[in-house]
Design a protein that fits this description.
The protein has 121 residues and is mostly helical. The chain is 45% helix and 10% strand. The longest helix has 20 residues.
C-alpha cells in the first residue's frame, strides 16, 4: 500500500506499507518507477493505471475492471468527459455505492490477474 500519509491497514506480513513524501502524484510516481511485469496494481487513478500497463503490469480498478493497452485510451477520454460534465453542472451526483456484486467482481478479477501473472514465464 503506497500513500503520501499514514493509513490504517491490517497487520500482515503480506502487506507492505510505504509512505512517500507529500506532493502531487508522489505515490503514483513511486509506484510507476517500481512496477513491472509480474505486478498487479489496484487503482481508480486512470493515468496511474496507464503508466502501470505501459510498464508491463496488470492494472485493475476497485470495481474489477481491468485496464489494458487497448482500453486505457477510452478510459482517459471518459474520465475527461465526466470531469467536464461535472464542471458544467451536467452531472451533479457522485458514483454509485459500492455493492456486494462489485466486491465479488473485483475479487474475481484480482484472482484472474494473479493467476495470469503466475502462469506467465
Amino acid at each position: 500500500m503506497v500513500s503520501n500519509s499514514w493509513m490504517r491497514l491490517a497487520e500482515s506480513p503480506l502487506i507492505n506499507r510505504v509512505v512517500v513524501s507529500e506532493g502531487a502524484d508522489a505515490a503514483d510516481d513511486w509506484i510507476a518507477e517500481r512496477i513491472g511485469g509480474g505486478d498487479v496494481c489496484v487503482t481508480q487513478d486512470i493515468p496511474l493505471a496507464g503508466r502501470c500497463v505501459a510498464a508491463g503490469a496488470k492494472a485493475l480498478g476497485p470495481g474489477g475492471k481491468a485496464f489494458t493497452e487497448d482500453s486505457i485510451g477510452m478510459a482517459v477520454a471518459m474520465r475527461d468527459l465526466h470531469t467536464e460534465l461535472r464542471e458544467t453542472g451536467e452531472i451533479t451526483g457522485g458514483p454509485r455505492a459500492f455493492t456486494k456484486q462489485d466486491r465479488s467482481r473485483f475479487l474475481q478479477a484480482l484472482e484472474e490477474s494473479i493467476q495470469s501473472v503466475l502462469r506467465s514465464p
